[in-house]
Design brief:
By secondary structure, this protein is mainly alpha-helical. Helix content is about 70%, strand content about 0%.
Length: about 290
């Protein structure tokens, strides 16, 4: 089965389980937050690394990928709230708090975080010895010590180191994706941290570029938010061309950081191919 199909199926199972004994509106909000999804970059990366490392238990790799995607969906719900970005749109539709109200958006985001760990537990039933490291990887990616909670909190500080901000807000889940893929395959995972961290920082730089010069109707979310909210941005710090060059450098760094594995060459190609989709074609042409 295609990795994306595997992830969608695992996410559907997780949402269906949550819907069984949940208040109707909360159940609807959870499904709204997860489907239809975006590019599913993080779980696809997790699955690709597991494959490159010779995975022997796809249920565990799928559970790890789904856990990371559920955390990502939770972060989007919370990021859009009035106390943060106050965004009207996400993934081409109303943001969750606009569609369901702020109380249900907070609760749905919280529930998605908890569901992430349930997805891990379900996936690890046949490999319980690998669950501990995976729980640690996923929990740290979402936490206060360099995780997405820290990334959001940096926006509340008077001075921000752009790289630390990017590494926490975006890079942490990408680093978790590469490490979780390796851990799910039963191989040492720490060496995979930098691969995901570089990809995550590249994606955040691309997001800054899209916010600066992108089209909201194409991206499916508001643009110009970095300037409006005085947030740190690669474009503001490096200029547009500088940000585009930084993105390219980060992709090269990610590929060069791939540890020895049975399918390193194939994984390098997949990463470069996926990175080409970070920017819409009209923006990518600016780098030519």
């Amino acid at each position: 089965m295609d990795p994306l199909d595997r992830i969608e199926q695992t996410l559907e199972t997780a949402i269906a389980c949550a819907e069984q004994d949940s208040p109707r509106k909360l159940a609807a909000a959870l499904r709204y937050a997860v489907f239809p999804g975006g590019a599913r970059l993080r779980p696809k990366l997790c699955m690709s690394v597991a494959w490159a490392c010779g995975a022997d238990d796809w249920a565990l790799a799928e559970g790890a990928g789904a856990a990371i995607e559920l955390l990502h969906c939770a972060s989007l719900v919370h990021d859009d709230l009035p106390c943060f970005d106050d965004a009207d749109m996400r993934r081409g539709k109303l943001s969750l708090h606009r569609a369901f109200g702020e109380p249900l958006a907070v609760l749905a985001g919280d529930a998605l975080i908890v569901m992430a760990f349930d997805a891990l537990a379900v996936g690890a039933q046949n490999r319980p010895g690998r669950l501990g490291p995976l729980v640690r990887i996923v929990s740290q990616a979402g936490g206060a010590a360099g995780g997405i909670a820290a990334g959001q909190a940096w926006e509340c500080e008077p001075q921000i180191d752009l790289s630390r901000y990017h590494c926490a807000k975006t890079g942490s889940l990408f680093a978790a994706a590469t490490m979780a893929g390796a851990a799910a395959a039963g191989v040492p995972h720490e060496a995979w941290r930098n691969v995901g961290a570089y990809i995550g920082e590249a994606y955040q730089v691309a997001d800054d570029i899209r916010d600066a010069v992108g089209d909201a109707s194409v991206l499916g979310k508001p643009v110009g938010r970095d300037v409006a909210l005085a947030r740190p941005s690669a474009c503001r710090e490096l200029g547009l061309q500088g940000a585009i060059h930084r993105l390219d450098d980060l992709v090269d760094l990610a590929i060069s950081a791939i540890p020895a594995c049975s399918r390193a060459a194939e994984l390098s190609g997949l990463i470069r191919q996926e990175a080409m989709r970070f920017l819409p074609e009209d923006i990518a042409r600016l780098a030519a």
